[in-house]
Amino acid sequence: EQFVTAIVEQANGGIKYWEGMNEFNVNGIAPATVVQMQEIIYNTVHSLDPGALVLSPTVNSAGADGSFAQFLADGGGNYFDIAAFHGYNNDTGEGILTTVQDFQAVLAEYGLQNKPIWDTEWGMEAPNVITNTTAQEAFVSTGLILQAAAGVQTEIFYAYDDADSSLYSPATGQLTAAGVAYQQTEQWLTGATEPTGYQLNGSVYTVQLIKSGQSDLVVWNSAGQSSYSAGPYTEYMNAQGQLEAVVNGVVTIGTVPILLEIPSTPAAPVITNDTINGNNSVTLIGTGQANSIITVYDG
Question: What is the DSSP-derived secondary structure letter of residue 199?
Fold first, then answer.
């Protein structure tokens, strides 16, 4: 208690989210002991900084369900605001979905299904290091999309500058292809809702996104390349941010998601007639992506 008090006081409101013990199932600490420590963290943080939120102690996805369930059985569910886990040990982004669902099932078993869920560490770490460039792109993009569609509210990748993560190249000082895919996917998801979650037809995943009143569709095939009927969508953006036209209503999809879009149609320009210095003029005020005012004089 003295230790936690000193840290919270020194932070002086600068830290708004406090996480309990790190991967206690890996460290071998008994869940009952973790509950005692978590109770101290929870009560101390809320006493000294009522606006802060406390995350649960985390478990690594390998063997996590039993350890976290025992933590909850020992009373740990009373001492966190946000349920946190680590989504490691997956060869694919689709594999993280099972980890999320298993974690959600444990929470539901103890009546905590309404708790916000954060994945505070996930990435291409050992023992399942991914080295193929396309597989790296697919992993980060599908992992982000499916966790969001499954209800994970915050996803923290560990770590962009780690040798195994390959989001950033210290040699070039630039993002890798996987890093660009991560950035691009984050832009697709930010501000969007997924009203129907994800849909799976065979090995083809689709996720509808609604953003600013516009409906887009993310699609990929976890098994490899195939043709996909684009329906009303006439263009698509790939995970590297390149915009392409849909040809004959069909696109080729693969393991890396693409975003199908319907281009927004600019509203018709507003036309006004004026007289300036005795000369007639017509002013066109455009309402497209780059608004402009064009005034044409007849004098």
Answer: E
Q: Which residues of the chain have pLDDT under 50?
A: 267, 275-276, 281-299
With a CB cutoff of 8 Å and minimum separation 6, the contacts of 264 are: 214
CA distance 293 to 95: 52
Per DSSP, the residues of 130-163 read ---HHHHHHHHHHHHHHHHHHT--EEEES-TTST
Collect contacts of 216-219 with beta carbons under 8 A, ≥24 apart. Answer: 216/188, 216/192, 216/259, 216/260, 216/261, 216/262, 217/259, 217/260, 218/145, 218/188, 218/257, 218/258, 218/259, 218/260, 219/253, 219/257, 219/258, 219/260
Secondary structure (DSSP) of 214-238 = EEEEEEEETTS-EEEE-TT--EEE-
User: 47 with 73: CB under 8 angstroms?
Assistant: no
Token pair in block for residue 68 = 């976290």
pLDDT recorded at residue 279:
52
CA distance 137 to 189: 16
Tell me the C-alpha to C-alpha distance, in Å, between residue 208 and each of 188, 211, 241.
11, 10, 18
User: Which uninterrupted H or E stretch holds 11?
Assistant: helix 2-11
Pairing status of strand 17-19 against strand 53-55? parallel
Question: pLDDT digits over 207-224, tens only?
Answer: 999 999 999 999 999 999
Q: From the CB of residue 163, how many other CB atoms can be counted at a distance below 10 Å?
A: 10
Q: What pLDDT shows up at residue 28?
A: 83
pLDDT tens sequence across 137-153: 999 999 999 999 999 99
Report the run of H or E that residue 259 belongs to, with start and end.
Answer: strand 258-261
Residue 179 DSSP class: H
Helix (H) and strand (E) counts in the chain: 7, 18
pLDDT for residue 125 = 74
Q: Please give the single-letter amino acid code of residue 147.
A: Q
Say if CB 119 and CB 86 are below 8 A apart.
yes
